[in-house]
Amino acid sequence: MRRKKLCSRSGVITVFFTLLIAVFLGLFFALAESVRIQGARAAAANITDMANYSLFSEYERL
To answer: Taking phi first (over 0 means left), then psi (-120 to 50 degrees means alpha), and beta for anything else, what does residue 61 get?
Structure first.
């Protein structure tokens, strides 16, 4: 009887850690997606700056 009680206790801990890992993985992937989006925005800003520089490279103000 004592052995049966120990088995059910370890199952509860396993479910708890499984749910905890799911929350942490969700947070990690949300942060990774945010980093990816911010990187794409930075790359777009750099490309826009390069385009402006190229466009006005031969512009001479009188």
So the answer is: beta
